[in-house]
Amino acid sequence: MTKHSVLFVCLGNICRSPMAEMVFREEAKARGVLSEWHIDSAGTAGYHIGSSPDSRSSATCQKHYPNLKVTHRARQVAREDFHKFDFLLCMDESNLSDLKSIRPKDATTDLRLFGSFDPLNDRIIEDPYYASETVQPSPPGSRP
After folding, report:
1. Which residues constitute the catalytic centre (predicted)?
2. Which residue(s) pair with 89 in the sheet?
């Protein structure tokens, strides 16, 4: 069986993209399709390489998925990701623009906004890093 693959991308890979990765992984597991997916996340910038997700993101995910084990460590998008993943899903236009600028000409990935799957058409997922509010899980339309 061929696996599907998705890489969620935000700026630093400690808030939005690891949260999307964790939620997608848990939803795939709940639906019995986790073995059909390779799921990961990365950042366009290298500010937080090796860091755990932001505590607000982890806390929100664990609130909705109490058995969730957070093992993520931030990494930066690599050239091979454009060939390794079926989808690179960006959280905002800046992430999308950054990836378009480094995308190899022979890339095989489908590069788009993660929010484009949102049935409410809220295409941009704002960066909560500097916000004091708790972040919320990914939109319902994002489920596997």
Report:
1. 10, 16, 127
2. 8, 112
DSSP label at residue 141: G
Residue in this structure with the two tokens 């590069």, named with its chain if needed: 111
The domain spans of the chain are 4-142
Question: In whole angstroms, what is the distance from residue 60 CA to residue 29 CA?
Answer: 18
| CATH annotation of 4-142 | 3.40.50.2300
- Sign of torsion over alpha carbons 67, 57, 11, 23: positive
Tell me if 142 sits within 8 A of 23, measured CB to CB. yes
- Beta partners for residue 7, in sequence order: 40, 88
Residues taking part in catalysis: 10, 16, 127
The whole model's pTM is what?
0.85
- Alpha-carbon dihedral of residues 113, 118, 123, 129, nearest 10 degrees? -90
* Tens-place pLDDT, residues 77-94: 999 999 999 999 999 999
For the cut 80, the answer to whether the pLDDT of residue 135 exceeds it is no
* Nearest Cα residue to 127 out of 115, 112, 117: 115
**DSSP summary character for residue 50:** T
Position 99, amino acid: L
